[in-house]
Amino acid sequence: MESTLLQSFLRAANLKRWLAKPDCPAVIKECKALFNKIYAPKVPDSDVGDSSLQDDVADTEHVTGSDATLDALLQNAKGKVATRARLRHNGIIYSTSITHLGNSLVQFYPNGDTALSPVPGCIKHIFSERNRLYLAIQRQLPLDSPIPDPFALYPQFPAKMYSSHISPSLERVEVGWIYSHYARWEMSAEYAVVLSLNRVRRIFLASVSRTYCSPQE
After folding, report:
1. I want to staple 91 with a disulfide (CB 3.0 to 4.6 A). Which of 43, 150, 156, 212 is the partner?
2. Whole-model pTM above 0.85?
3. How far is CA 139 from the centre of its chain?
4. Under DSSP, is residue 146 helix (H, G, I), strand (E, B) or coil?
5. Which residues face 154 on adjacent strands?
6. Distance from C-alpha of 39 to C-alpha of 45, rounded to nearest angstrom
7. What's phi and psi for 66, nearest 5 deg?
8. What's the number of CA atoms in the CB half-sphere (13 Å) around residue 39?
9. How many CB atoms lie within 10 A of CB 196?
10. Is 108 in contact with 134 (CB distance < 8 Å)?
11. Which residue segments constitute the domains of the chain, with CATH numbers given?
């Protein structure tokens, strides 16, 4: 898989270099707009200003009593509260679990404290209050048994054992507190494996750099 990704990256880079050369045929340059859509998609960095998501994220006013856990979280809310299905922040899409389970699994810093380790959780609601967006997240519960974590022996592989259950209570999380998405594999009814997708990407890039860009070469 690493070699396939590397070859695709190099081919795209060579194509861009060829299109930028003055001797590139005019007929090929006419296709540059199409190539840009394939190899260089423009992803907006704004929170939810992307018009392509407007049909999916239309705000709906929260009705008290529709969800007891959300009501408890918003009991001190001031002003109108509206919910939505998904949002885009820094080019990354986050969704509620009922909309897209994979995009709802995130690691976040508790209370925004980056000195703490990110904890995994599942986005149940996305809501806006006073024109600010928040996530209502249920944490992945830690192991309630004394069994050792088998992944602790492999610090370069960012996986960790958790309980397969999530907390029934919700936490208010700001979008800027999100660390990354994560993948979850439920090994059994009691145990689940959480794999941080952010660190997987960094490890892969470091591996490619060491393999193909070594000082000796």
Report:
1. 43
2. no
3. 15
4. coil
5. none
6. 18
7. -75, -25
8. 18
9. 20
10. no
11. 1-42 (no CATH), 45-212 (2.30.30.490)
